[in-house]
Design a protein that fits this description.
Layout lengths: L1 H16 L9 H18 L18 H12 L8 H5 L4 H12 L13 H13 L2 H5 L17 H12 L9 H6 L4 H13 L2
Helix pairs in contact: 1-3, 1-5, 2-5, 3-5, 6-10, 8-10
One heme C (HEC) binds next to α2, α3 and α4.
């Protein structure tokens, strides 16, 4: 289990990186991240907020979560176009460099427009029943390997939750597979609606 050991090692690095040690990265990694970041943000949104369907917002994402996911893309433990390709030649240090910068982008803003109160209330009950906030924390800001999901794009949230449900997305741990098992597709739609809009 090479990747497991790798992630454990990354954990120590990520703890250092969250204290803002980008400058401590080797110059070669700094250079690579600087060169490639504009292409990443052309898809993911320059100010942390994605404008493209199917592409997640990355602003203020937890650095450790980003590192783990980039590693999973690289190792093809998480399969998704175009990310397996994007991550394929990145070193562990590069992954940490991207994660550090991404975690410092501004957090995305909740979806605007009129709100369906009945859906919001149905979803709130589901969030309580399934203890989403226990791991994702109040306001869904995330922690460690648990992602920030508040104000994430609704279409991406639906895709992510369906992926855990039909087993096409394997998490780094089994938390989400366990959580999603009793949740229906209709409930996934309400949860995504709510999490994309909650303030
Ligand atoms: C052509 C568009 C595109 C480019 C360029 C791109 N990404 Fe992505 N990225 C995506 C899509 C689409 C997904 C969602 C994949 C899925 O559906 O699971 C994603 C997912 C991610 C995720 C996981 C987010 C989460 O919430 O789980 C991270 C982290 C990420 N990208 C970082 C990067 C970095 C760093 C780069 C540059 C090296 C980059 N991306 C370049 C389209 C792109
Ligand atoms: C036991 C802890 C735990 C609970 C409870 C939990 N989550 Fe998660 N969640 C996680 C972890 C850990 C991940 C990252 C898994 C991975 O590596 O893919 C995650 C990932 C996600 C993602 C993917 C985000 C992205 O950027 O790709 C979504 C969406 C999500 N959770 C929604 C929910 C919702 C909605 C609930 C309640 C119904 C919930 N979670 C309950 C731990 C939890």
């Amino acid at each position: 289990m090479r990747s497991f050991a790798a992630v454990l090692a990354l954990g120590c690095f990520a703890a250092v990186l969250t204290l803002g040690c980008f400058a401590a990265l080797p110059a070669s990694a700094q250079q690579l991240v600087k060169e490639r970041l504009p292409a990443c943000l052309a898809c993911h949104g320059e100010n942390g907020q994605s404008q493209l369907e199917g592409v997640p917002s990355l602003g203020a994402q937890q650095a450790f979560y980003v590192t783990v996911q980039l590693l999973m893309f690289r190792e093809k433990m998480r399969l998704a176009d175009p990310m397996n390709d994007m991550a394929k030649d990145l070193t562990d240090t590069d992954l940490q460099g991207f994660a550090d910068i991404i975690s410092q982008l501004p957090a995305p803003q909740p979806a605007a427009g009129p709100v369906d109160d009945a859906r919001m209330q149905r979803a709130q009950v589901l969030v309580q029943q399934n203890r989403c906030n226990f791991c994702h924390l109040p306001n869904f800001v995330g922690q460690q390997n648990v992602p920030r999901i508040g104000a994430q794009r609704e279409d991406y949230l639906v895709k992510a939750l369906r992926g855990y449900k039909d087993n096409s997305r394997h998490g780094y741990d089994s938390s989400m597979a366990d959580v999603i098992a009793p949740i229906t597709d209709e409930q996934i739609l309400d949860l995504a609606y709510y999490i994309a809009r909650v303030k």
